[in-house]
Design a protein that fits this description.
The chain has one domain: Alpha-Beta Plaits. The chain is about 35% helix and about 30% strand. A hairpin with a 4-residue loop joins strand 6 and strand 7. This is NIPS2 protein.
Length: about 260
């Protein structure tokens, strides 16, 4: 009787452990190497600037004078992908997306050269007086997403940002590698990125639409495609928090 009780206790202990211990599959490579584009070594920086409401017009004017000089100067191995003001979402906010062609060495080179640039130093000082807060993230692009290339407008842009549960980035990538094909019919997919530095386990999807009604029509049409609902069903549990911004490009933005 004692032996039976002991065996039963051991089984119960083993069952309880199985509830809390999750087997981890060994991997031979970093998640970023599995998910990112291998044919490029581009690094992206996403900047969020919360501007004093009375300063937004002056802030935009200042950016439109200075940012193209950095973008067009071959001396700097970087490019302005897009620059916007948030229309719906957090108000009086500017969003900038930069590409550094060559990864972290290119980022370091640009930052080092800009520190020696007196015009940029003055720009940062003047800009700083207009801001309430700012933050940035360094990102890589998903291998299965479109390359964010310049496009003609007019368009509105939606930046959908997802805070994932830690440890779920590979699952997210596996599902969205299939899901993205459902969202290509109207050329609305601009770019998909995941964070490396800053707020981690963050995913950003960037979409372009003619207007808000077109956005609604395209999103509704996806639900009529067999398989889309299943992929949404499996990705929703991976998300801790999500946010949508509707953004208007500035005149200097390559994404119009």
């Amino acid at each position: 009787r004692g032996l039976g009780s002991s065996a039963r206790s051991a089984r119960e202990e083993s069952w309880l452990k199985s509830l809390f211990v999750r087997k981890v599959d060994p991997r031979k490579d970093a998640h970023s190497n599995l998910l990112a584009k291998r044919e490029t070594s581009s690094l992206y920086k996403l900047q969020f600037h919360n501007v004093k409401p009375e300063c937004l017009e002056a802030y935009n004017k200042l950016c439109q004078e200075v940012l193209p000089k950095i973008h067009e100067e071959k001396h700097y191995p970087c490019a302005l992908v897009g620059t916007w003001n948030t229309w719906y979402g957090e108000q009086d906010q500017a969003v900038h997306l930069w590409r550094y062609e060559g990864g972290y060495p290119a980022l370091n080179e640009v930052m080092s050269k800009l520190r020696q640039n007196k015009e940029f130093t003055e720009f940062r000082k003047e800009r700083g007086n207009m801001l309430l807060s700012r933050k940035n993230q360094l990102l890589l692009e998903f291998s299965f997403w479109n390359e964010p290339v310049p496009r003609d407008g007019p368009n509105i842009y939606e930046l959908r940002s997802y805070q994932l549960r830690p440890g779920t980035m590979i699952e997210w990538g596996n599902y969205w590698a299939r899901a993205i094909r459902f969202r290509q019919d109207s050329n609305e997919a601009v770019g998909g990125f995941f964070s490396q530095i800053g707020q981690l386990y963050m995913v950003h999807h960037l979409w372009a639409y003619k207007d808000l009604q077109t956005r609604e029509d395209i999103r509704n049409a996806a639900w009529h495609k067999p398989g889309w609902d299943e992929l949404v069903y499996y990705t929703v549990p991976l998300i801790q928090e999500m946010e949508s911004r509707i953004m208007i490009p500035l005149k200097i933005s390559p994404l119009q």
